[in-house]
Amino acid sequence: MEQETVENSQQQPKSPDRSGPLGAVWPIAAYLVYWQIAPRIRDDRIGTVLISTLISLALVVMLTGALGRTVRSLRGALILMLCAAAAVVPLRAMAAFGFMVPPWRWIMVIPGLAELGFIGLGAGCGILLSRVLRDVNMVPPVAAVLALVDLWTVTMGGPVHQIMTSESPGAQKVAEAMTVKLPAPTSGAAPIAVVGFADFLFIAFFTAAMCRFAGDREGYRRTVWPLTIVLSLYMLVVLITGMRLPALVPMAVVVVAAHWRRFHYARSEAFALLYAGLVIAAIIFGAVLMGALKA
After folding, report:
1. 177-219 pLDDT, tens digit each
2. For residue 68, what are the contacts with CB-CB under 8 A and spacing of at least 6?
3. Cβ–Cβ contacts within 10 Å for residue 221, how many?
C-alpha cells in the first residue's frame, strides 16, 4: 500500500501550455511603466509611500513568477541567466567603484531597466536550480531547509545579518549590489524598501517547480497569487516595524500550504517530516524569542 502511494505521488500531471513564450511580457511592461510613474509622485504622506511600495512588490513577484512559468527549458533559463548577468554584473561593479562606461551606461537611461536585469538574473538561476527537483515530494523538505537557512542568515547572525547591520562602506556596497530598490514616491516619509537576490531566485524556483509538477496553469495560480498577497503583507510589517525578516520563511509556508494535496508520503516518511517540522518550528520560535528579549 505504501509503495503504491509513493509511486502514485511521482506521477506528474500534464497540462497544456497556456502561458506561451510571451507570458512574461505584460508583467515586464507593467513593471517598467510603474518605474516611470512612482518616482514622479510627489506626496509626502506615509500611506501613499506604503501603498506605492506594495504595488511595486506585487509587480516584482508577478514578474518573477511569470519568468518562472514561461522559461521552461534548461537552454532558455541558461540564456536568460547569461544575458542578464552580462548586463547587470558589470553594471553593479561599475556602480560600486563610481564610474560608468558604454554600453552599460545606456541601461541607466531607462529607469527600472537595470533592476529588471537583476530580477532576470535571479529568476534564471532559480529556474535552473528548480530542475534539481525530480519529484513533487521533494518540495516540502527543500522549502523547510531554505526557510531555516534564511532564518539563520537574516536574523541569527548569519552573513546577511552581518552585512545589513554593518556600518562599513564595504558592507553597504555589498548590500546595494545584492538588492533591488522598489520604485516608490520620492519621499522621506518611509524607509526605502529593497528586495534581495535570493527572493527573486526562490520565487522563480518554486514557481517553475510547481508549474512542472502541478501543471502550468494551476502551478502558477496556486503559487504566485498567494505569494503576492502574503509577501505584500509581510513587506508592510517590515516597513512599519523596521524589522529585518527572512522572506523565505513565509514563502516556504505558502508554497507548501497551497499545494499540500499534491504531497503524498509513506507513513514513515510522513512521521519523519513531522518530526523535522517540529524541530524547525522550535528553532524558529527560539529565534523569535531571543530577538524579542534582545529588543
Report:
1. 788 888 878 665 555 678 888 999 999 999 999 999 988 889 9
2. 123, 126, 127, 130, 203, 204, 205, 206, 207, 208, 211
3. 16
What's the mean per-residue pLDDT of the chain?
A: 81
- Residue type at 98 in one-letter notation: G
Q: Domain locations in the chain?
A: 2-294
